[in-house]
Specification:
Oligomer: single chain
Distance between the termini: 70 Å
Strand content: 5-15%
Strand order of the largest sheet: 13-12-14-15-17-16-18-19
Structural class: alpha+beta
Largest sheet: 8 strands, mixed
Mean pLDDT: 83
Number of strands: 29
Radius of gyration: 33 Å
Length: about 950
Amino acid sequence: MNLETFITKWQGLPGGAERANFPPFISEFCRALGLPEPDPAVAGTLTDYRFEAPVRPDAAFSAKSSGRIDLYKRRCFVLEAKQSRLNDGEKAPVEPPAPAPAPVIARNLFGEDIVVTPPLKPAAAAPRRYDRLMEDALAQAKGYALALPSDHGWPPFLIVCDVGRAFELHFDWAGNGKGYGFFPDQKSYRIELADLRKADVRALLIGIWTDPASVDPRRQAVRVTRDIALRLASVSKFLETDRRKQLLSHTDSQMSQGIEDTSMFLMRMLFCMFAEDVGLLPEKTFQNFLADSIGKSDQYWRAGLTDLWSRMNDANAANRYWSFGDTVVRYFNGNLFSNFRIFDLPREQKGELLQAATSRWNEVEPAIFGTLLEQALTPGERAKLGAHYTPRPYVERLVDATIMDLLRAEWDAVRLPKDPGKLSPPPAGGRSDSRSEPGEGPSLAAALAFHARLAALKILDPACGTGNFLYVAMEQLLRLESDVLVLIAQLGGAAKPMVGPNQFLGLELNPRAAVIAELVLWIGWLRFRLANDPASIGEPVLPPLHNINFGKHGGYDALLAGNTETGETANLATPAPADWPAADFIIGNPPFIGGKDLRAKLGSDYAEALWQAAPAIPKSADLVMQWWDRAAARLTAPGTRLRRFGFVTTNSITQSFSRRVIEARLLPPPPAGGRSRDGHSAGPGAGSSPAPLSLSLVLAIADHPWTRTGKDAAAVRIAMTVAAAGDHDGTLITITGESGLETDNPTLMETRATGRINADLTTGTDVTNVVPLKANEGICSPGVKLHGAGFIVTPAQAAALGLGTRAGLEAHIRPYRNGRDLLQRSRGVMVIDLFGLTEAEVRQRFPEVYQHLLVTVRDGRAAVVAKSATADAKAYLVTWWVFGKARSELRAALSGLPRYIATVETSKHRVFHFLDASILPDNMLVAIGSDDGFHHGVLSSSFHDHWSRLQGGTLEDRPRYS
């Protein structure tokens, strides 16, 4: 059948008979487009491509009967069919189109008056009247997608087919079965039968049917974004390097401001590229200026940009003629163009900007700006900030669990008021009778009220970086708002888009990242609005925002309050917790700095101030737990606005010191009027106010891979936790398999368990509350920690130091083993162990050893004290001839034994060894004071292995015996 015959035959068919009409309609559709037709059905079998595909929708429907998908194609789509009784002409009322803008008088480069007519904003198309049948079909398709077997994966598309009239497309934007939204956008998701005459529409449907990845806009965005990032990275680095040279003798504050100036300059350039590509600036005008500037003087460059950005910031239309582009520009305003500096660039860097400007900026992921920042950071800066940028699928998973799951459930209750939680399944062995008549529809008042609640939400990322989490959350909220706006219009109501960047709050220490975060939100918002409702973009295009760092310039320390007198971001003299803005949800990815590294990476003064401001948090807890505990305090405060919080952390969150923070928050709250457990204010509710609420984990993933797409990407494992106030069961996700971790689209296999989630991110018996056996007290200890490589010697060096000739030295130079010695080939080294001897005794009895350690150990410890005079470092220097951690408790446990048991602390495979009593274990070995073979057998059992994995932590993907 050819296409025209197909359209003529089916177009305008009366509604109400989809059960009979759907199979022939789809079969003829496939023939008309050259698509394979569905396979013959096998009774009771879910094959890859068939009509009436059977599923058991227990998770999606209230009854435990089988359902049937009208048409299913594995890893492509779930299609549900209706045949609407609405006529094509039945439209909901819409507002009249806006009048044409009046011409304005502007002045050209020579001061002459010219007449300019601003562009007419496109009028919104009239939506179809609300159709409960189509809404029911979409809800049913979502339920069936949820009910598919796990090995089938989430279908990327849901299709609602209005038989004989249209296909409505919905895409899984989040990639997890929860983020289905209009595809490609709110304006174009409904494909009328007549649209099949368009080649691009046919190509889209063929792609959905045969290769959904080929039409996935996210994949194209990744490709475009990576290419642009590579080009712009060199420009970013050039600007920063040049600025650092100019400000070499200036203060840190002046240096920071200077670097922020270059970042802002580059952001303006990139925004102009984006604005031109999406039609906010006239086509090719900025590209042509960049091309012209390559061969012209710096004066031309500065004059052209000054003229453009001044015009973009002028509210008076008569002053917005850009002479270099021979065009009138729109009024943008915003913080981006209120003040600006222009930096000269060499010819090569201008060429890179020109090449970037020719890219398709409407397809660029705003996260590109975070990539630029990370590439511009020095290794030291990157380490200090914990600058790791989370792959988008992982961000979406956290955003869904923290924010969108709640909001979508509330919206479903508004959209389908008779069935707010679950749909009634079709009868077993047959099709639903609900196709004939629509049920009770939603209330316009309820839809408007829900829209108002969406517009009032505040979402906070207290470690926002360049705004990646906030941008993804905003995009998800915008997609939900699109659903709401369509329904309101179909019900005859009127509502304008209200979700905007001002609802997404961020705190960020790096001033460059803070600037980028604001721009990321604006570009993300504009890109979405231009695709879905361009008429909603008014003037100024960029109203000023105050959502990042409370609207202040510079960085903001989210943990320690600043010093108002000196202007420092953190007041270390009298430390106190920093203010956080009120929010309904908190999300984020705080810096990845382990507890043991806090002093080294943040400085001793800052670390001490941090611990003083939050005394309830163990000093050895990872830095992320400072954010986690602060959010938990907000969540459990009486009268709190906060509903949930969710963080990405390193997976060491399950280890002892970090886990204690979670344990304390999961405990039953103190009685009314009781003392707060945390060292900082939890907000309202202190003193004699009502007691804090309890807290539960509603989602936990203890060990999750990190996508590595670049040479500097973090080779770490992460954990995710989402918390809600009150007593709730949660979902525990365990990653059971993974592949493609070096690609942009990793594949993860997982299992899910539901129940009360414990502090160690497990369900079931809470092993974190077990009490140690008195009989085992002191029996287990890590080995010695040297704090000086000079203690290790070869047998030849030991002989030169007097072993075999100096009486008594054999008791102090012993065989030494570390983890690699046990798991691989032993190095055969020895260690100088002078525990129990004074400095004078060592000098008198073993002068060669004394001189050796004086040079190889003492000088090194003195250098450490000079660099960072911590209490431990000073103590190590005082007794410089002794190990830093000599482990007196271990020596007592091993005393008198001919052998003892040891295992490597961090290892994929848990193996226990017997070591001779003469061997001294390294700090990365765990020694057990027993020579009993029975104990060795118990420790080597699968039961103990399972127990140790539950109790211990992990390093990357290796279990730790801790």
